[in-house]
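One record is given unchanged without comment:
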Amino acid sequence: MEVWFSHGMANWTRRGWQEFKWCVGAEIGLNIFAHPRSEQGWANPKWQRKPLEPLIPLFKLSPVKGMPEGSMTPEQCRLAAPRLREILGGRKWLKDALLMGHRLADAMEGCAVANEALTLQPSIDRGPL
């Protein structure tokens, strides 16, 4: 199964998406494999306090059993895109992860401009990239 978004051309395999989120989470001190409400989980109240990490909404996007859930508002996208680019520039990434990460940031920026939410989409055949 592939993970696609409502905007842009970023896509991953389901496993690749989880690995990408794990790497991004590690960069901000978040363990995405921890229970969401644990000390290092994304739903822990410490992650919801100010200053809010702009990438936290990214971890709520999940392709569960082929039915995507979660979304990012245009405002969340506006804040998250530059933070994602900052993280992508701060460590050595595999070429494909770096490309898809920038495509995801592009999609976030597009959503912010269009005032539309960024959501995961069911896997469909989109043809050649």
Q: What stands out?
A: DSSP finds four helices and six strands in the chain. The first strand starts at residue 2 and ends at 5. Helices lie at 14-28, 45-48, 74-89, 95-114. The two ends are 17 Å apart (CA to CA).
